[in-house]
Request: fold
Amino acid sequence: DDRSVLGDEQFDELLMEDLLTFTCCDAALFNTDNLVAKNKVNGFMEQMNIAYFEWYSAMSQNPCRQRQHFSRAIVLFDTLQANSEELEMELENVFQIKDHFEDEQGNSIPALPISSWVYYQKLFIMLQVVLRGFELDVYKLWEYQSMYWYASYLIDHIEALLNRITQYNNYKIESIKDMSKKLKKKTGEQKARYKEKYHFKL
Reply:
């Protein structure tokens, strides 16, 4: 009832840890000083926390009930995906808070860190629903081919998304390394100000 994991860690803390280690490390939307933007992000995080809690709660159910919970979670995460994309576009267009990375050709690409996390969770849950169908012997024999194809289709989308996330994270890693190099060149008060400014990254 207290939304904690084994009474030790709160779900909102677990969610933030998941986000930061997967798609949101050094995300601009978590580092902004704009109070209006912060409130919008915090409000959306509350929505995500509810979905995250429901997703983890389903893990304690038996396989049949898990599939039922997962099926409902797809709709929940699909709504979250639409809302997260709207939020991140608003943050960029209205508040100029944006996360971008460059592809191999040097083109700037919107990172959409929160939307990427939500989209991954949705795809993973969809795949679990399909695979649980085999486990529970839900499908008729003649349905196997189409369901195997659909599982493969979902895996292809997950792989493409993970490749994009990896590219974004590698870009962030290189930018952090570059900041460390710049820090070494600074001295005295200038170095202290620079370090304070980028304390989260360094």
Summary: Helices lie at 11-22, 28-31, 35-58, 63-95, 113-135, 144-185, 188-197. The two ends are 37 Å apart (CA to CA). The first strand starts at residue 4 and ends at 5.
